[in-house]
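Box 3.1 A note on notation
Throughout this textbook, protein chains are presented in two layers. The first layer is the amino acid sequence; the second is a C-alpha cell string describing backbone geometry. Keep the layers aligned when reading.
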Amino acid sequence: MKVIGLIGGISWVSTADYYKLINEGINQKMGGLNFSECMIYSFNYAEIKKNNEANDWDATFKLLLKGCEFLKAGGAEAIVLCANTMHFIADRLEDAIDLPIIHIATVTAVEIKKKEIKKVGLLGTKFTMVLDFFKDKLAANEIEAIIPKSQEDKDFIHNTIFDELGRGLVSAETKRRYLEIANQLIKDGAEGIILGCTEIPLVIKPEDVSVPVFDTAMIHSNAAVEFQLS
C-alpha cells in the first residue's frame, strides 16, 4: 500500500470525514483489519482564513508547503489537500514539493464525465466559485460550471461555510437556503450540482435535489484510496 499525507484542519470537520472515508474505502477493498496507511498534518484554520481573506496566498502557500514537506519527510508518496479552496495553490505546491497532489477538481471532472453531463452548478467558498482554478479543470474536460448569479447568495454560502458548517453547525434555515440556491442553478441549466466545499454535504444530500450531486470530499477520498492501492 502506498502512503498518503493529508493536509487537514481546513476545516477539522471535513478532515475527520476524509480520514473516515479513506479508511472505510481501504477496508472495503481489502477486508479484514486493513486500513489506510496515512499521516495528517492539521492546521489552525484561523491562520489560513486570515491570509486568504487578505488575499495573501503566498503566506498560505508557505504554511501548506511546510505541512507538505513534513509529510514527505515522513514517507508520504502523494498529498491530499482536504479542502477545495486550497487547490488554488495545488499546482504550485506540487511543483515545489515534487510529489503528486491528487487534485480534487480533476477527479471530480472524471466522475461528471461518467454521467455524460456538460453543465454543472458549482457551490463553494467565494474563492472556489469566483476564481478559475476549479472551473479550468472542468473546462479542460469540456464541462461548463455555473455559479449563483446573486452576490447575496455567494456571500451567504461563503459566510455560512466558515461561521456554521466549518464548525459542524447545521440549521434548518441554512439548509433551506442552500437548496433554494441549488434549485435556481438547476433552473439555469445545471444538469448536476458540485458540492465544491467539503462541508456542504452537511446541508445538501443527493435526495434533496432532482439532479446528480457530486460530493467532492467523497470523490476525492475515493481517488486517494485508488492511489494507495495502485
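The chain is about 50% helix and 10% strand. The first helix runs from residue 12 to 30.
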